[in-house]
Design goal:
Layout lengths: L5 E7 L1 H5 L3 H11 L2 E5 L6 H7 L9 H8 L5 E7 L2 H9 L12 H5 L8 E3 L7 H9 L13 H4 L2
Antiparallel strand pairs: 1-3, 1-4, 2-3
The structure holds inosine-5'-diphosphate.
InterPro entries: NDK-like_dom, NDK-like_dom_sf, Nucleoside_diP_kinase
Keywords: ATP-binding, Cytoplasm, Kinase, Magnesium, Metal-binding, Nucleotide metabolism, Nucleotide-binding, Phosphoprotein, Transferase
Catalytic activity: a 2'-deoxyribonucleoside 5'-diphosphate + ATP = a 2'-deoxyribonucleoside 5'-triphosphate + ADP; a ribonucleoside 5'-diphosphate + ATP = a ribonucleoside 5'-triphosphate + ADP
Amino acid sequence: MSEQRERTFVMVKPDAFQRGLVGEIIGRFEDRGLKLVGAKVTRLSQKQAEDHYGEHEDKPFFDDLVEFITSGPVVPMVWEGEDATRQVRQMIGATDPAEAAPGTIRGDYAVDLGRNVVHAADHEDEGANEREIALFFDDDELVEYDFHESTWLYD
Ligand code: IDP
C-alpha cells in the first residue's frame, strides 16, 4: 500500500470541548487506527466560521450556527488513513443525533441537531477536505511521520 493515504478534516465543536469530550473523541479515531497529522486548540473568528459554513449561508439556522461555532474553543484536526473521509463520516454518525446510530460519536454523545459535538468533512463533496484543511492549517502544521501501527493495520 502507498504511504500517502487520504487526509480528512475533523473538528471538535465548542459543546464537546466544554463537556470534556476532546479526549474521548480523539480516542475514537486513534482506536480505529487513523493517524493524527495535525491538531490545535483555537477559537474561530466570525469570518472563519462564515467561510467554513459558507454552503449554509442561505439557511435559516446559519446565524445560530455561526454564533455557536464561535462561542468557545474548538479542536480542528487532520486525520490520515485509507478511505479516511468515508470512515470518519461513518464514525461520527448522522447530522441529527436523534437519527445517529448508537456506537457513533453523535449517537453516543449528543441529542440535539444544533449541539452535535463534532464536524467532519463531507465525503460526497470532493473539494471539502482540501478547502477545510486550508482554512485551519498551514502546510507546515501538518506533520509527516512513520506511523508504527501501519504494519499491523494494513495488509
Ligand atoms: P454535517 O455537520 O453532518 O456535515 P451539515 O448539513 O453540513 O451537516 O450541517 C452543518 C451543521 O449545521 C450541522 O452539523 C448542524 O450542527 C447544523 N444544522 C444542520 N441542519 C440544521 C437545522 O436544520 N437546524 C439547525 N442546525 C442545523
